[in-house]
């Protein structure tokens, strides 16, 4: 039996995932967590076969949580589940130690396949992402500007580009307005930009937002 912990701050998502898993005979959802603190607490208290981790967790965020998980339990498989398209966060998640990456639009059958494969020590990425990664590795040109950003700075510019204000982002991520403003300023400086309009134009041009 594959014992998994679901880490997602949306109750409706957790319930949906539990229903998908309920139709299997070899996978059981044995715990839930709504933020990074709860994830780490659960991992320290019990042994798990796999963590199903949302990348946009409140507080520290999925990528930072993933990094800490891999420090504490380096062999624990983590399958990242995200509302963001693969090209936005997949590479960062895999670099941080994820064993797989799926979007929340994936078919239930694909999720089950990914859980089984990752729990057995394998890796799971879609065919489209595999092709994108091969292209990414094979490119000789300089990195795009957004790849120079920290994970938090990148998260902030995506949210700014989608039309959110600094205050709204602070509320969504359970961080202070000052922290978000600092990340915005750093991102602007690294990318050589002056305002949110330039960030939005860049994000649309590079397919980072729809």
Architecture overview:
It is a single chain. With 210 residues, the chain is α/β, with parallel strands linked by helices. The protein folds into two domains: 2-137, Rossmann fold (3-Layer(aba) Sandwich); 145-205, Winged helix-like DNA-binding domain superfamily/Winged helix DNA-binding domain (Arc Repressor Mutant, subunit A). Helices cover 53% and strands 13% of the residues. The protein has ten helices and five strands; from the N terminus they run βαβαβαβαβαααααα. It has helices at residues 11-22, 36-45, 62-72, 86-95, 108-119, 127-138, 151-161, 166-173, 177-191, 196-205; strands at 2-7, 27-33, 50-54, 78-82, 100-103. It has a five-stranded parallel beta sheet, with helices on both faces. α1 (11-22) links the parallel β1 and β2. The longest helix is centred in the C-terminal third of the chain and has 15 residues, at 177-191. The model has no long low-confidence stretch (mean pLDDT 87).
Give a quick summary of the entry:
This protein has 210 residues and is α/β, with parallel strands linked by helices. The protein is 53% helix and 13% strand.
